[in-house]
Specification:
- This protein folds into two domains: about 280 residues, Aminopeptidase, CATH 3.40.630; about 110 residues, Alpha-Beta Plaits (2-Layer Sandwich).
- About 35% of the residues lie in helices and about 25% in strands.
- The longest helix is centred in the N-terminal third of the chain and has 24 residues.
Length: about 400
């Protein structure tokens, strides 16, 4: 099966490089992937794969092989882009000014479409059912995965395992990286509005200096991590924005802070939320102000099922060679794939897309992000292989 899939991936690679370029040229923001969704639906129609629409722009296809009830495997891709102005000068540069596929979701969607074509062509040669999940909104709370799950994407039929891949520009094309267990952090958004009596900057004693209070709060919040967290548990709290005031001689009556909190321990995560609220409220009030604290709960940790990890890594080694499969480091970045892995066994892995010799080295979420397009062939091939050949995982 490996050689057959490799052959078909090679054969169809030019077609799907064109697909990726089209998607890259027409990016859409989270929950507005209307044209992207239509494009995916049209492709599935072209491949004669039945599908349904969920969560407005999500698409769920179904491919039945021999003995379709024997196993159900889900393969997932995300479709949304980022609010970034592209700086690449390429023929397929974004035509939607200020919006860019800077996180490789165009690649993920393309690889799953390519895998779908291969799997459908070979459906008489593998057993079970493949559920194709094209989801919206990975880049923005509450996460398209959570919406798809609420609308039943993991039911009727219920998958016994789910796989997802993500571009990795720091990994050379031709390579994969995997990790078992906890692999990515949870992510919550922090919002603080500090209020107090404003006034003349020359008379701070007549005000509740909100800028000074905000400054103390930024420092104090770090103690939530440094003095309360188990030192062996990775966690990050970063304040990324301070907004307040508009001139040199006025102390404002309101200052806003924004930031992010991330953790690899779900129990500590919820305890930290309470500490953040307590520290903020206590400090601000002790300095004469008041504060509104809002924690926008985001994605959970990504946990890769250990059995799926072992088998998927072994299959990747057979596909690409043992020397081309590495261990993924733990990341404090987040992914809404974590919602799926809370419900069913999941495995989220990395696809190498970098090429130092070609100067393709920019990281994700940057205006110069791009990929070595030969990764398309590899990505669609591995997804097709995982979909068609992991039946022993669920027996």
């Amino acid at each position: 099966m490996i050689e057959t899939i490799k052959s078909l991936a090679k054969k169809y690679a030019p077609e799907f490089i064109s697909v990726r370029r089209h998607l890259h040229a027409y990016p859409e923001l989270s929950y507005h992937e209307f044209k992207t969704s239509k494009f995916v639906q049209d492709k599935l129609k072209e491949f004669s794969i039945p599908f349904e629409v969920k969560a407005t722009t999500g698409v769920v296809g179904l491919i039945k092989g021999r003995n379709p009830d024997k196993r159900i495997i889900a393969l997932r891709a995300d479709m949304d882009a980022l609010p970034i102005k592209e700086a690449n000068e390429v023929s397929y540069k974004s035509t939607n000014d200020g919006v860019m596929h800077a996180c490789g979701h165009d690649v993920h969607t393309t690889c799953l479409l390519g895998a779908a074509k291969i799997l459908n062509e070979l459906k008489d040669e593998w057993e079970g059912t493949i559920k194709l999940i094209f989801q919206p909104g990975e880049e923005k709370n509450p996460g398209g995965a959570s919406l798809m799950i609420k609308e039943g994407v993991l039911e009727n039929p219920k998958p016994q395992a789910i796989f997802g891949l993500h571009v990795h520009p720091q990994l050379e094309t031709g390579k994969f990286s995997f990790r078992g267990g906890l692999s990515m952090a949870s992510a919550d958004e922090l919002y603080f509005t500090i209020k107090g009596k404003g006034g003349h900057a020359a008379a701070p004693h007549l005000t509740d200096d909100t800028v000074l209070i905000a400054s103390h709060l930024v420092v104090a919040l770090q103690e939530v991590i440094s003095r309360n967290r188990n030192p062996l548990t990775p966690s990050v709290l970063s304040i990324t924005s301070i907004q307040g005031g508009h001139t040199t001689n006025v102390i404002p009556g309101e200052v806003k802070l924004m930031g992010t909190f991330r953790s690899l321990d779900e129990k500590w995560r919820w305890k930290a939320h309470e500490l953040i609220k307590r520290v903020a409220t206590g400090l601000v009030r002790s300095m004469g102000g008041d504060v509104d604290v809002h924690i926008d709960v985001g994605y959970p940790t990504v946990y890769n099922d250990e059995n799926l990890y072992i088998v998927a890594r072994k299959m990747a080694e057979e596909f690409a060679g043992k020397e081309n499969v590495e261990e993924t480091e733990v990341r404090m970045g987040s992914e809404d794939f974590g919602y799926y892995s809370q419900v069913i066994p999941g495995c989220f892995f990395r696809l190498g897309t970098g090429n130092k010799s070609k100067g393709i080295i920019s990281g994700v979420h940057t205006p110069t992000f791009n990929i070595d397009e030969s990764a398309i062939e590899i990505g669609m091939g591995i997804m097709a292989l995982l979909g068609s050949s992991v039946q022993f995982l669920v027996e």
